[in-house]
Write a structure and sequence with these properties.
binds S-adenosylmethionine, 7-stranded mixed β-sheet, 2 domains, binds zinc ion, alpha/beta, disordered N terminus, 3-stranded antiparallel β-sheet, Rossmann fold, 14 strands
C-alpha cells in the first residue's frame, strides 16, 4: 500500500495521507502500479489518481504508432499514472536497439498521480529515459518555444475535451512531430449539443448516420485551424472511435505554406434528413440537390485524408506481432478509408426504412461490389458501410441482400 506525500512538497489539500491502494498490473510488456479501485469495473474514479484499464487498447495503439514513427522525444502531456508515456518509453522501438527508444517527459498537475508515475518509471528501470514534471499542462506546453526543446511526439489525453490544449500542444511540436489526442466529449462532437460544439470547436456538428466520423473530422478540422493561427499545418495519419472516446493522430508540419495546404482539407458534410442523400462540399449547403428540401451541414471539418497508408500498415503489423488483436484490427480497419467519401450509410436504418429483415454488412458490400461500386465496412461506426454509391443505390443493395436471406 502506498501513502502520499512523503518527501514531497504538497498543496494543503494533498497533505492528508491518502491511501492509494496501489496494485501491480501488466499492460503490454510494462509493469504498472495503478489504483486498485480503478480495476473494479465501471467508470474509474478521477480522484485521487486516475487510471482506466479499458484504455489499454488506446495505449497499445500509441505504442504501435511510436514504434513506427520513432520519435526521439515523447511528451505525455496529461500523464496520470504515466501509463502511456512509460509504456512508450519501455516498449516503443523495442527490437531496434536501445538507443532508438524515445526520451519521455511526463507532465501532470496532480502530485499524487506523479507520485505513482515516478514509481512506474522506476519499476521499469526508465530513470534515465523518463522525466516527471509537475506542471499545469498549458503552462508547460507554452514554455516550449525554443526550437531545440520541441517534442517529436506529443500526446494529449484529458478528461473531456482536448480543445483547451491543442493550440499550445501544436506549438510544442517539432517539425514532422506526431500530435495525438483523445476526446471523451463524444456527445458534443457527435451532434447531441450543436451549440457546445460551435463554441468549443468552432464547428457545427449535426446528427447524422456517421456521427463518430463527423466527430473525428471535427477534431481534425479544429486542429488544422488552431495550427493555422501559428503557421502550423497538420496532416491526419490515423484516427479511431473506440468505446466512449475519439482519438486522432496528426503529423505536424511547420510553416505558412504547410498551414495553407492544411486549409485545403477543410469543408462540410451534409445528410439530407428527407431523402437521406449525403455529400461533402467546400461551403455549407442550404438545400438538398436531390429533393430540394432544407438541410444543415456539419463543419467546418476535415474532409481530406485521415490515414497515412504506410504508417497504418506498419502500425497494424506491430500490433499483430505483439498479439494486440483489438489494436491491430482498429488500425487495419483504416486500410482503404481514404478511397471513400467522408461519410457512410447505416445498414440498420436502410433495413427499417424498407421494412426488410436485417442482413449482414458483408452481404451488402458483396451486393454493392457486384453492382460495380466500391464498398468497405465503416471503420468509425458500429453500423455502417462506406461506398461510392448514392443512398438510393445503397438501399437497393440492402434490399437485394436481405432478399438473398429468404
Ligand atoms: C485522462 S487522465 C490521463 C490518463 C493517462 N494519459 C493514461 O493513459 O492513463 C487526465 C490527467 O490529466 C490531469 N490534468 C487534468 N487537467 C490538467 C491540467 N490542466 N494540467 C495538468 N494536468 C491536468 C489529471 O490530473 C489526470 O491525471
Ligand atoms: Zn434530400
Amino acid at each position: 500500500m502506498a501513502t502520499l506525500c512523503a518527501g514531497l512538497k504538497c498543496l494543503p489539500w494533498e497533505q492528508a495521507r491518502v491511501d492509494l491502494g496501489l496494485k501491480l498490473v501488466r499492460e503490454g510488456d510494462t509493469d504498472l502500479y495503478v489504483p486498485e479501485k480503478s480495476l473494479a469495473g465501471g467508470a474509474p474514479d478521477t480522484y485521487p489518481v486516475f487510471y482506466n484499464p479499458a484504455a489499454k487498447t488506446n495505449r497499445d495503439i500509441s505504442v504501435c504508432v511510436a514504434s513506427v514513427t520513432r520519435p526521439a522525444t515523447f511528451l505525455d502531456a496529461l500523464a496520470g499514472t504515466g501509463a502511456r508515456g512509460v509504456r512508450v518509453g519501455n516498449e516503443g522501438n523495442r527490437g531496434r536497439g536501445k538507443g532508438a527508444a524515445p526520451q519521455v517527459t511526463l507532465v501532470d498537475f496532480n502530485r499524487m498521480s506523479l507520485q505513482v508515475a515516478r514509481r512506474n518509471v522506476k519499476l521499469n528501470g526508465l530513470g534515465r529515459r523518463c522525466t516527471v514534471t509537475h506542471s499545469e499542462t498549458n503552462r508547460f506546453l507554452c514554455s516550449r518555444f525554443d526550437r531545440g526543446e520541441k517534442f517529436e511526439a506529443v500526446d494529449v489525453d484529458p478528461f473531456g475535451s482536448p480543445a483547451p490544449y491543442i493550440q499550445a500542444a501544436l506549438t510544442a511540436c517539432a517539425p514532422g512531430a506526431i500530435l495525438s489526442f483523445t476526446a471523451t466529449d463524444a456527445a458534443v462532437l457527435c451532434g447531441v449539443y450543436p451549440l457546445v460544439s460551435l463554441r468549443r470547436y468552432g464547428a457545427s456538428s449535426i446528427r447524422n448516420e456517421f456521427v463518430h466520423e463527423t466527430g473525428l473530422r471535427t477534431l481534425m478540422g479544429f486542429a488544422a485551424r488552431a495550427g493555422g493561427v501559428n503557421d502550423i499545418g497538420v496532416e491526419p495519419v490515423l484516427a479511431h472511435s473506440t468505446l466512449h472516446y475519439l482519438r486522432v493522430y496528426l503529423r505536424v508540419r511547420r510553416g505558412a505554406t504547410e498551414a495553407d495546404r492544411a486549409m485545403e482539407g477543410l469543408g462540410y458534410v451534409t445528410q439530407c434528413n428527407t431523402c437521406l442523400e449525403r455529400w461533402a462540399s467546400k461551403l455549407p449547403s442550404e438545400r438538398c440537390d436531390s429533393c430540394g428540401r432544407k438541410v444543415r451541414s456539419s463543419g467546418p471539418l476535415w474532409t481530406g485524408k485521415v490515414a497515412e497508408s504506410g504508417l497504418v500498415s506498419q502500425s497494424a503489423k506491430f500490433g499483430s506481432e505483439r498479439g494486440w488483436k483489438e489494436a491491430e484490427s482498429i488500425i487495419a480497419s483504416l486500410g482503404r478509408v481514404d478511397d471513400f467519401p467522408p461519410f457512410s450509410y447505416s445498414l440498420e436504418r436502410a433495413c427499417s426504412l424498407k421494412k426488410v429483415s436485417s442482413t449482414s454488412v458483408e452481404k451488402v458490400i458483396g451486393e454493392l461490389q457486384s453492382n460495380g461500386f466500391s464498398a468497405m465496412r465503416q471503420p468509425f461506426e458500429l453500423d455502417g458501410i462506406k461506398t461510392d454509391a448514392t443512398h438510393e443505390e445503397f438501399v437497393q443493395a440492402v434490399v437485394a441482400a436481405s432478399r438473398l436471406l429468404r
